[in-house]
Amino acid sequence: MWEIYDDLIDSIPEDLTVLECMLGVSWTLVRSERGLGIAKTIKGGKKGAELSNIIGIPLKKLAGCVKSWNMLEASMGQAAINAAFNTPLEVMAITGEPLILSDDPEKLNAFKQLTPEITGKKVAVIGHFPNVEQLQKICDLSVLEREPQAGDYPDSACEYLLPEQDFVFITGTAFTNKTMPRLLELSKNAKIILVGPSVPISRVLFNYGVDQIAGLVILNQQLIWKAVQEGKKMSVFKHGGQMVCIHR
Questions:
Q1: 3-state DSSP of 2-63
Q2: H helices of 104-165, where?
Q3: In angstroms, rounded to a whole number, what is the distance separating the alpha carbons of residues 212 and 111?
Q4: CA gyration radius for the chain?
Q5: Of 130, 135, 195, 218, which has the highest C-beta tally within 10 A?
């Protein structure tokens, strides 16, 4: 179950360190020499965080905390992983194109980009993304959520629904709460898209059945830092972050 985590962590260079970090209400930030990584702040899990004296430790060591069952520690670990991969230079090495902050944060929305492919298909979305219910107009939609909103299925329905889908969109917080390995296994018959700021933009994930990665690269660190300090939620996309989609 830990293989996908270990592969990501092992891919982080030994010489990167934690320069700065912030555990925000909605988002967690970790800065390394490569750039700023972000992950959703998840609460709960095992009581008693053990992290201390974080600044200056190897980034790879903090990244290992993603395997913690204390979800605040795991959030820090996920942000540390993203501080290694979700950076302009690293992503440009994959795409071959420079990243430019778009005036339209929805331009690279993975759901919009895949509209032609998912039309008329069975589609499951893990996590209630903003306006996700609009997809009901074009596909047979099932939204699965740990805290269900109106019309959502509880996340326990994954065991029953995911094997029947054509497309499965999975939130990056599934890494933090440790459900990602099982969700990938259940979705192996579908096209799998990982979506959201918490998703590492790493080709390592293509070895585990992932077909597309839609993650966030921070281009303006100062704006993102300020937005997280102020408790911004989804509007973080409008504060110096650029969505990037890469394919297998």
A1: CHHHHHHHHCCCCCCECCEEEECCCEEEEECCCCEEEEECCCCECCCCCCCCCCCCEHHHHH
A2: 110-113, 115-118, 158-161
A3: 11
A4: 17
A5: 218
How far is C-alpha 55 from the geometric centre of its chain's CA atoms? Answer: 23
For 178-216, b/e burial (b = at least 16 CB within 10 A) is bbbbebbebbeebbbbbbbbbbbbbebbeebbbbbbbbb
**Interior angle at CA 55, CA 53 and CA 56, nearest 5:** 110
Amino acid 123 reads V
Q: What is the mean pLDDT of each run of 10 residues along the chain (248 residues)?
A: 97 97 94 96 86 92 96 97 95 82 67 92 94 93 93 95 98 96 97 96 96 93 89 71 88
pLDDT in tens, 44-54: 988 877 778 89
Domain architecture of the chain: domains with CATH: 3-93 (3.30.390.100), 95-247 (3.40.50.11590)
For residue 108, the 8-state DSSP code is T
The length of the chain is 248
